Amino acid sequence: MLEEKISGIRAQLDAAIAEAKNPSDIEAIRVQYLGKKGLVTDLMKELKDVPNDQKKEYGQKINVIKKEAEDKIKEAIAAIAKKAEEELVNSAEQYDITMPVDFTGEGSYHPITLVQREVEEVFASMGFTIEDYLEIVDDYKCFEALNIPKHHPARDMQDTYYLDNGQLLKTHTSAAQNAIMRKYGAPLRAVFPGRCFRNENTDACHENTFFQMEGMMIDENISISNLIYFMKTMLSEVFKQDIKVRLRPGFFPFVEPGFELDISCLICGGEGCPSCKNSGWLELCPCGMIHPNVLKAGGIDTDKYTGFAFGLGLTRLAMMRYGIKDIRDLNSGNLKVLDQFKNI
Ligand code: PHE
Fold it and tell me: Best mutation site among 147, 156, 174 for ligand 1, i.e. most ligand atoms within 8 A of its Cβ?
């Protein structure tokens, strides 16, 4: 009687598995046989009505078919996954990796690299060194050394991506200020370009990944006029024309006083367009006199030295320089965008 039932179940199971086409078919089979009210489970329930002297044998037989059903279902899942993978491979575009490659196509520099090099050259000619710095930094370097204590509201503007170990992707190139002050001491003149990250919703003028170029000059008697002079010289060299700028007060905990240096939007000529949020002006270079707390954190003698710092938006500068309307084109990896810079 039991034997018959078991061989009936086995035949039915084999037929069902042979028909199954996808993981959900298999799942239905698993429920039908091994689920709470499944056919194999039902056999177990019958065990209580079996005479005691036959229980052991009965139990063993059920265990065999149960294990058999489990194994067959597992195999079927693996077979279906393998088949799906094979289909995917066969349907994908085929490449012949032994084909000769045409290496004659010329590459190009990314527009941000082009602008970065230009600006570096201008600053190098004014005696600035060019520094490299990390992309992953700690909270101290990115915020605390810059006079932004924990829970300071200024942090809200710079939400970023935190790693499990507490480090973070730097939100601004200012994160390198402390290390560079400690490396060189005063006097110093340095620019340091770098990739920055913020947790932003993207639009034509915001990206979660962008480039800045930070600059610092620390010496005796450095004042705001030095800052303005260097900014104006740099911008007129880069744009090779007179650029309208305006200076507004701006708040950053690591400078005092702080400013926003805006340039008249070169895409719309100051009329207003999506690239400048219709204001006609583009925030290009926040700057200011380095806050004494920041100098102190960098080991600089604040009785003797003062300095200025600026954070030039390199990505914005590249957009202005080359009339790129949407910031997202710059990170898109689209060769049609890059191809336009071949001969520059
Ligand atoms: N680090 C600031 C930012 O990214 C910009 C800045 C740099 C402001 C240097 C003042 C001085 O928002």
Answer: 174
H or E segment to which residue 61 belongs = helix 52-91
Residues with Cβ within 6 A of ligand 1? 172, 174, 252, 255, 258, 286-288, 309-311
Question: How do strand 129-130 and strand 168-169 relate by DSSP bridges?
Answer: unpaired
Ligand 1 center from residue 117 Cα (angstroms): 20
* Per-residue tens of pLDDT for the chain, all 344 residues: 788 888 898 999 999 999 998 888 999 999 999 888 888 888 888 888 888 888 888 889 889 999 999 999 999 999 998 988 888 888 766 777 888 877 677 788 999 999 999 999 999 999 999 999 999 999 999 999 999 999 888 888 888 999 999 999 999 999 999 999 999 999 999 999 999 999 988 888 889 999 999 999 999 999 999 998 888 888 888 888 878 888 899 999 999 999 999 988 888 888 998 878 899 998 889 999 999 999 999 999 999 999 999 999 999 889 888 888 899 999 888 888 888 888 77
Measured by CA distance, the residue closest to atom 12 of ligand 1 is: 172
C-alpha–C-alpha distance, residues 27 and 334, integer Å: 43
Distance 255 CA to ligand 1 centre (A): 8
pTM: 0.68
- How many other C-beta atoms can be found within 10 angstroms of the C-beta atom of residue 314? 26
Ligand 1 pocket test, pick from 231, 252, 284, 291 with the greatest ligand atom count within 8 Å of Cβ, gives 252
Burial class (CB in 10 A: 0-12, 13-18, 19+), 315: buried
